[in-house]
Amino acid sequence: MSDKQNKLWGGRFSESTDEFVQAFTASVNFDQRMYDQDIRGSIAHATMLAEARVLTPDERDAIIQGLNEIRAEIEAGEFQWSVALEDVHMNIEARLTERIGVTGKKLHTGRSRNDQVATDIRLWLRDHIDLIDSEMSRLMHGLLGLAEREAATIMPGFTHLQTAQPVTFGHHLLAWFEMLRRDRERLADCRKRVNRMPLGAAALAGTTYPINRERTRELLGFDEICYNSLDAVSDRDFAIEFCALAALTMTHLSRMSEELVLWTSAQFDFITLPDRFCTGSSIMPQKKNPDVPELVRGKTGRVNGHLISLLTLMKSQPLAYNKDNQEDKEPLFDAVDTLQGCLRAFADMVPALVPNREAMREAARRGFATATDLADYLVRKGIPFRDAHEIVGKAVAHGVAQKKDLGDMSISELRQFSDQIDEDVFDVLTLEGSVSARNHPGGTAPEQVRAAVARARAALAG
Ligand code: ARG
Predict the structure, then answer these.
(1) Is 72 exposed, middle or buried (0-12, 13-18, 19+ CB in 10 A)?
(2) Is 317 found in the same domain as 178?
(3) In a domain, 461, yes or no
(4) Region 254-278: what's the mean pLDDT?
(5) What pTM does this model have?
(6) 227 and 337 in one domain?
(7) In this structure, which residue's CA is closest to atom 3 in ligand 1?
(8) Rounded Cα gap, residues 302 and 258, in angstroms
(9) Residue 110's pLDDT band (cuts 50, 70, 90)
(10) Which of 30, 54, 69, 415, by CA, is between 20 and 30 Å from 184?
(11) Cα–Cα dist 442/171, whole Å
């Protein structure tokens, strides 16, 4: 068979495709990932066509059986993918005709690759959104478990990466949880717009066959159909939206990564990561590097890049389908793979991290972390806050000079700065006193952390 005849669209052509152009325009090397979605879409389409009496029941059965056999061939690694057949859609269709004969050529009735590919990507993305959702949920449950165990563990809270006030480690972990909770909401929201069906739009204007789009929608589990055929085949906003939420989730993971990297350093020493999440150095025998969080931090860049790629791909495209859109797949696939992999690594790693409670506590103790508590104490004794701030500032300066934390000073030492200070000051200068006093919803008190964990667990279950 000559190259020209080999093409499913070769009818109007008088010479075969340039060899380089053939490879240049082909997408089969990457879009074969959507083989299962393509086959599911075709089975639903054939089922609907038979109900609409466009295909006979025998033709439908032959098509469905042929497609299921092709799926088995692909999964057994026996399918011969051909670049000459351009993409996953034509590879499967050509193989169907090879297997079942002329009936195979009827599958494409009332359909175009334009609505077919748009349907396949949406099905593929929907499947992967569900996988990503379960990794997110696994990570979130892991965070809740760790936060509960560390509800009363004291660590320094930072602003400007300078010790600010003591917080509980559990509270810090719940801040991560909140970021992910919003990411997961965005994912669920994106799924709603992904889960709409382009099939039936055909090439761009719809089809003259008596199709029943509602039936195909139902068979494929879409929530709705796309209501305009031109829009259905052309827009990839759902993929852009996914990349936007993926970039945001990666941004959150990169923030967590950064903290993990800092905390594993000898300078912080707040946590230990199990060896299985780290690697060594080929030259420095003492090294144990936090590779997983470093890589997650680094991979954020590629997902941000994919978002920009897709926005730029879509920008200024006239209606309806343009070949440009074939370029949607690699960025989307890689954004999905990257996010899924990073979430999986985090879900495995986070519950296994070992906090060094002593080092965290010591760091909080050293950094004048209870200075605000002393100011609040003076306010309760009737001193205006600005004056209290000034008094405590002087006490801190004294502490810096004497290399002494506020809690280490004697009562007479403290009283140099204000005669309003009494023995009960030590209740607020302790780290436990400081965190327990922040006892309102959203505050760092151990009691609040435990309540927040319980609320979050109920929300995840519900
Ligand atoms: N491989 C193409 C894509 O990914 C399929 C649609 C092509 N349609 C067409 N008329 N050339 O977008």
Answers:
(1) exposed
(2) yes
(3) no
(4) 96
(5) 0.94
(6) yes
(7) 326
(8) 17
(9) very high
(10) 30
(11) 9
Q: Identify the band that residue 8 occupies on the pLDDT scale cut at 50, 70 and 90.
A: confident
Across 331-343, average pLDDT: 98
Band (pLDDT 50/70/90 cuts) for residue 367 is confident
Atom 4 of ligand 1, nearest CA residue: 326
pLDDT for position 4 = 52
**What CATH number corresponds to the domain at position 320?**
1.20.200.10
Residues 190 and 54 in one domain: no
Instruction: Among 113, 121, 124, 233, say which to mutate for ligand 1: greatest number of ligand atoms within 8 Å of CB.
Output: 113
In a domain, 160, yes or no: yes
Q: Which residues contact 200 (CB under 8 A, 6 or more apart)?
A: 110, 115, 206, 207, 211, 213, 216, 225, 229, 232
Structure confidence at residue 288 as a pLDDT band (50, 70, 90): confident
More confident residue, 17 or 334: 334
Assess whether 298 and 383 both reside in one domain.
no
65 CA → ligand 1 middle, Å:
25
Q: Would you say residue 1 has pLDDT above 50?
A: no
Residues 393 and 445 in one domain: yes
Average pLDDT over residues 208-214: 98
Q: Which atom of ligand 1 is nearest to the CA of 329?
A: 4
The answer as to whether 135 is a domain residue is: yes
Cβ(27) to ligand 1 under 6 A? Answer: yes
The catalytic site residues sit at: 160, 281
Cβ-based neighbour number of residue 138 at 10 Å: 17
Domain limit, last residue, from 361, 382, 398? 361
CA distance 305 to 298: 12
Classify residue 390: in a domain, yes or no. yes
Question: pLDDT by residue (tens digit) across 29-58?
Answer: 999 999 999 999 999 999 999 999 999 999
Q: Is the minimum distance from the CB of 325 to ligand 1 under 6 angstroms?
A: yes
Closest atom of ligand 1 to 31 CA is: 4
Q: What is the CATH number of the domain that holds 82?
A: 1.10.275.10
Domain limits for position 14: 3-109
Cα 206 to ligand 1 centre (Å): 17
Of the residues 361, 392, 408, the one at which a domain ends: 361
CA atoms in the 13 A half-sphere facing the CB of 23 = 2
- Domain total in the chain: 3
Which CATH number is 406's domain given?
A: 1.10.40.30
Q: Which of 22, 88, 323 to mutate to test the pocket of ligand 1 (most atoms within 8 A of CB)?
A: 323
Pair (427, 296) in one structural domain: no
Q: Are residues 161 and 214 in the same domain?
A: yes
CB 45 within 8 A of CB 199: yes
Give just the sign of the alpha carbon dihedral 86, 91, 92, 97. Answer: positive
* Contact of 46 with 107, CB cutoff 8 Å: yes
pLDDT in tens, 393-445: 999 999 999 999 898 999 999 999 999 999 999 989 999 999 999 999 999 99
Band the pLDDT of 3: cuts 50, 70, 90. Answer: very low
Which one of 326, 327, 330, 332 would you pick to mutate in the ligand 1 pocket, going by the greatest count of ligand atoms within 8 A of its CB? 326
Pairing of strands 154-159, 271-272: unpaired
Distance between Cα 248 and ligand 1 center (Å) = 30
